[in-house]
Amino acid sequence: MGIFRSRPRGTGRPVPGDPDDFWAWWSERGRALVTTAVGGEQPGQAFDALTTAVHALHPGLAWEVGPGELSAYVLALSPEGDPELRAPARRWLLAAPEPDPTWSFTDHRPPDPTPGSGTLSIDGGPELDLGDVLVSARSSGSRFDVAVFHPAFTGLDETVRERVTYLVLDGALGENDVELWLGTIEATDVRPPDGFGLAALRAAVDDRRSAHVDADGRPTWTLLRGETADGPLIASAQTPLHPLTAAQLTRYAAVTLPYRERSPDGFPTGASLDSLREIEDGLTEALGTSGAVVAHQSCAGTRLVHLYLDDATKALEVVRRTASTWGEGRARVESSLDPGWDRVRHLRS
Length: 349
Prior knowledge:
8 helices; alpha+beta; single chain; Alpha-Beta Plaits; 6-stranded antiparallel sheet
């Protein structure tokens, strides 16, 4: 079976639609229509209806139907790299039915089954053999900085080279892994002496993911240290610290907690450390799936707890109510919309 796609429609910033409306359409009519279409019967009518249903969620979302790993077919919604569209795509996925032998679902463009095979053509240009792609990679914290080469790049302008590079990487790794595990990305027309193919890149990224994600797919935690004008700082942050780990959590909340018992370096000790652990555990329990503690940092007698919340819930009220129980000084809560998780970028490893 081939891969069928629909691109997003250019718009302003409409209010996202209700995922339940999409899944009601899918159950009543859409599933049968699209299943028949991938078999080659009246694909135009079915895919037009699918496009209408997806754009009712948000006209900036794109969809793709192709062979699935868990099922015969997979329906993927893609935010096309727009951080503000990750949340509606993730809420759509969270509301999806369980996968079955025919259909499974994902909120990002999945990788090709065999990276490095096949060809790629841009806007009717020459076909590029993906087996000729070479990648060089340098470890940078939890990510790889990569340079991508193809012999045809010498005849392409920089804009086209970059576009090809991102399409090649998306195909080899899938959209999510490109964002989670790659840092700087360069398109080069200079053959790398240490280059390797796309299949080897996927294997390296798979190894990197397994080192930072537990058996249940949850991020691990990394300890960080630094120096500030107020003294030494110690922090702990989930890795990867990226919105794709919980794309429906778009509201940032910072909880500032002064503590009494501290070491000469200003870090919490004794009963204060126990109390900080208790309130963070209380936040996690009270929020459930509507929010998450993603990092905390301590310096000079103050802990700053970083959270992300689902703005479609009352999670912020839960945070404020829980913070008000802090007994070692006045707790402060600040919040802002931050779908790109930019407020914690300094803690990414």
